[in-house]
Amino acid sequence: MLRIAGGRVYDPANGIDGVVQDLCIDGGRVVGDVQGGRAIDASGMVIFPGGVDIHTHVAGAALNFARGLTPENYRKAVPFLHGPERRAGLGGITPTTFATGYLYAAMGWTTVNEAAVPILSARHTHEELRDTPVVDKASLVLMANNEIVLDLLEADELEQAREVVAWLIWAAKCYGVKAVNPGGVAAWKWGKNASNLHEPIEGYSRVTPAKIIAGLAQIVDDLRLPHPLHIHCNNLGIPGNISTTLETMRVLDGHRAHLAHLQFHAYGGDGWGTMRSEASTLADYFNAHTSFSCDAGAILFGDAMTITADGPWQHLLHQLTGRKWGNVDVENETGCGIVPYVYKGHNLVNAVQWAAGLELLLLIKDPWRIFLTTDHPNGAGFWRYPELIRLLMDVEHRRDCLKKLPKRALRRTVLADLDRKYTLSDIAVVTSAGPARALGLTAKGHLGVGADADLAIYAQGPDGISFGRPRYVIKEGQVVVEDGEVRPASEGREFLVRPSYDEKIEEYLRPLFQKVYTMSFDNYPVEMERLTRPDVRACE
Amino acid sequence: MGGKVTCTLGEVKNRADLIIYWGGNPAECHPRHFTKYTLMPKGKFVPEGRKGRTMVLVDIRETPSAKAADIFLQIRPGKDFEVLTILRALVKSRPIDETAVAETGLSLETLKDLAARMKRARFGVLFFGMGLSMTRGKHMNSAAVLTLAAELNAYTKFVCMPMRGHGNVTGSDMVLRWTTGFPFGTNLSRGYPRFNPGEFSTVDLIVRGDNDAALILGADPGATMPQPGIDHLGRIPTIVLDPKVTHTSRLSRVHITTAATGISAPGTAYRMDEIPLPLRPALKSPYPTDEEIIKRIRAAVAAKPAWTPAAIPARATA
Amino acid sequence: MLTLTLKEQPSVPLEAEALSPDLTAGLPPEAVRALPVHLGKRQLRVADFFEVDGAPGDELVIRGAADKVKWIGRGMTRGRISIQGNAGMHLGAYMKGGSIEVSGSVSDWLGAEMSGGSIRVRGNAGGQVGAAYRGSLSGMKDGTILIDGTAGLEVGMRMRRGLIAVGGSVRDFAGLEMKGGTIVLRGGAELRTGAWMSRGTIVSVPQIPLLPTFTYTSTYNPTFLRLWGRYLSTHGFVLPYEEREGAYRRYLGDSSVPGKGEIFVFQPHAS
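Above: the input entities. Below: the structure tokens describing the complete assembly.
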């Protein structure tokens, strides 16, 4: 039992905007009242619901590949010493699993959504998530380049495709569906890409990226998954890709969808020399079409690691930068590409990217529809979210940073004209309440009675709130961070869904699987025992 | 430093039309490789099976694997690095000193043909074995394969893959990477992971006598290490966990017989393409599993006075 | 000047990055005795292994067979370390200034990723002299390393600038993936010198085997060798550079990268 007394609470989901009130916790949940137990004096402090990272890459084959590719990054990373109840680890741009959990917890984030899981290595993802302490987890299974599904779409067998997708989600033990560069990753298996939404992809005559997008969005809605189709649009990072993004949104019209790391998809121009931000155009369309949510995918200057399932983009980045390149094509399903990268303030393209992320956060009017992310580790390390918070709340600071950009960059963005300032309530929405709602995690992102007791308590000093260094972090009612020290806590949960499907689909899948895969069909689905504290959520 | 371009084995089965084995003898060391993944199966995009594929074997001598090869290239021992470097240049149409090619055991024409085949392939794959990674050049031989495969992607689809050894070495690589950041040779003595092959890698460390105790699980260094290393293991307290009494057991202080993982103990193995497979034990064993023993050792160590590493000073070693 | 005399051989390698003028300058012997060193997983004190005498200053003298003492001089920016005996791995790694002199031999990673200062080893060195640690984009960025004896594998791997000169022979991969700087091989090398170099200069006095991706361009007496030769002779390294002694065959490579590195191999005049 825990009483947090006298703090200023920000709980936008319940309309509480900086009200000084006690919070009572019992049995891991927020309750109306407690008698006895521990009391934390939070007077002068500010209380936020625990952060929810809706799009991050922290566990699984792609991340592990990146770790092995870059031992040099670990030499300058923050070391985590082992202790009686603390595991050793290393931070840096691709933290080891234990360090990942400690880093998120230490900054007040309590739920993370691993954004890209190949079914074939889902078992691996779950093993890493199990070794990621403190935080609750969800994960999204990659589907937009799954050749069994694409073959069904080619034959216009949408019903059968839906059954297969449902079966695959449950086989992977994941929470939702992720689409990355639809059709492009399948084309990459032959060294090609899919840049035109309405052109058939390599090896198909009817399947276009648009068909995949529309098909999957329909399937996700039919299966009533708590989180909509989560999509990384075609042509990520390419100048002029604004047209692809807008067209994708048109194709999705009528369906819910979550657009991932939207900053990387907001570019105008027709080449690296003319590349500019089209965040205003994108924000206008987005504001007018309310079935979409998105996350910012903002970049910050400094080290990054580009890790995506977008094989062709990663190869291009390798050719442009000469940095080392990792690539894995996963049979019948997807792939991943990795290139270490550094964003530099004096680089014109990087400066436009930096501005575009902030423009989206400022021009998209409804904070319930855009969430604070850096597509970790693609845009910046997740522990740098507080830097973004400052840029959103402090206009002078934002202007100071703008002044340091190359002059030519300023002509390619409207950021200098934007004087919107995020309030604390806005921050609570974009870091917690909004992503929780978009994920359909109804007990997260708020502090009403019955909510999971996940919260961060920040001191308030003369310079404002010390985001990034909460005084206390509470997870499921346990104090997991106190004065900078991460404490042992029970393991976080893993959220997953069991969409309904007819078991007969296995008769279709089994022989097909044995033909095109290289393992026994019985070894494909992840065993439930692999998940720590699995929490199966309803599809309704 | 070009990186690593690879795929899962099903991609090879479904697409590869050029398969190169370098420094390995799959017929004897990976006996199901040809039949399950690379030569015999009908692939989704190679429906004609074997007929749609060309297999090139590069080795210093003709092994049983050569019978399955369309092209066998007998390279002189220790010349792999030279040949791979020449191939990198030929692929990019860069000049080489033609008089220096003969010492590799292969002719310039042969190498030009090989480079052309690689560029012309629809989907090429190069599997490399310990015959490459353990001969003179060591990790640079592996780096040469990785770099060549990455560079070939400017022309066509090309991947490479190491032919990993037995004992779930890939699994230990994976777990070490996600928990410590490094695939092997991880030193935790300062309380956090540090990596430096040659300094902390097993054989080097033991041969120099840099450790004063050893716990050996699922390996038999007493059979294969250089003699100074074997002598050192015999002098220090050495503990062996193994289903069998091994060479290393005979020089250890303590040998604990454990159940064989995969046969009588469950777990997960990671295939050479890093795909996890569940191990379903078929038999029961009277012996405890490795996991049980390690947990009991840990509990006994935890009962001793606590040791916590010193806080990191401002400028720690890496 | 402080003198540290090894009195106890460490049973396992001793990590002693505290033994650097930046950390010991101005400290009296008692304070230096209390500095931390790491023996495997245990933190001990300098005094557990060294007698410490002398007066505060920025010069350190270390005496003894310190073959198992690692990281001496790590990151130093000033002062002088004089080792009368041997030293272990990572001597002078990340060094930025000052000087290190060793009367005996050293182990691997001498001067790794250094960016200034000078190191002189009278005996032999191990591998990875002035090299990049695994995965780093560059090795030494500047500074001078002189080794009278032999050295091991990957001397100057990925170095960007600076000078390494070795009197005895070196093993495979000298100048591997070199990006700049100069390596002088007074005693020649084994295989694969200059492998995958993109820029930089390697000079060998004896004949050395070269990769097929190096092409002969010309034979002459380059001016820079005269300058290097004069500089090195003041340190006891003799490089033939006079026309009457012979000329240098220049090779360009490594074409597999493609690189514009140079390897000069001395060709004495037929007498």
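Note for the figure: Helices of chain C lie at 21-24, 29-33, 223-233.
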